[in-house]
Amino acid sequence: MRDAPQSSAKLTPEGAPHTGHRDRLRARAREGGLGALPDYELLELYLFRSLPRADVKPLAKALLARFGSLQAVIAAPEADLCGCPGMGAATALDLKLAHEFALRAARAETHHRTVISSWSALLSYVRVALAHEPREQFRVIFLDRKNQMIRDELMGQGTVDHAPVYPREIMRRALELSSSAVILVHNHPSGDPTPSPADIEMTRQIIEAGRPLNILVHDHLVVGRQGVASFKALGLM
């Protein structure tokens, strides 16, 4: 069942709201391409199907104002989306569906390819997965001997500025997966991807835990809304 329309939505006598505006926006999208539309109109187009009887322009603008960007809107937790006036559970789920499509498409670009040949795709994937997460997550990408991704797993999740990490657990899981190398990934919900002293020390501990097992740590990526920081590129490992 679709969410009920916003109480402020204006309906035509026939019950079809703002048909002319919707038709004009669809026509512009077909003629000029979706890429020519500003973010709020692209979001409007997406919301047309979720809320077929409501004026969704105010909602689209409100969502962008609250979360800051189109990517942040679809990455927002369902509970936060439902807290916006005019949003219901079904519409929030539709937006999460868009995020899952983007996540799986980005992940597919990294599969069956070495991390070296698909590094830009890997960076794109971790940005989609983590740049707008409200809580800190620590993930590990496990690689085989050809440096192809075996698995991307969540190894710790915590608060807005800390996620518990256990080096022995990471190495135990690497052995279970017959992984010969890993890439560490975590996010900074603050938005700034600059590694902290605690990040640097934790990375050192994981490298040391892998050394006697011949499990390499290729890199540690810190993801924030402002970008992705690479420990290797920064000379931190």
Dominant shape: elongated
State the fourth-level CATH superfamily of the largest domain.
Answer: Cytidine Deaminase, domain 2
- The count of helical stretches stands at 9
What amount of the residues lies in strands?
15-25%
Number of domains: 2
Q: Which blocks of ≥5 consecutive residues have pLDDT under 50?
A: 5-15
Give a description of the structure:
By secondary structure, the protein is an alpha+beta fold. It folds into two domains: 19-103, DNA polymerase, domain 1, CATH 1.10.150; 115-230, 3-Layer(aba) Sandwich (Cytidine Deaminase, domain 2), CATH 3.40.140. The protein is 44% helix and 15% strand. The protein has helices spanning 19-32, 39-50, 57-67, 70-75, 78-82, 89-108, 119-130, 167-176, 197-210; strands at residues 137-143, 149-157, 181-187, 216-224, 227-230. It is elongated and about 70 Å long. The chain starts with 18 loop residues before the first helix and ends in a 7-residue tail after the last strand.
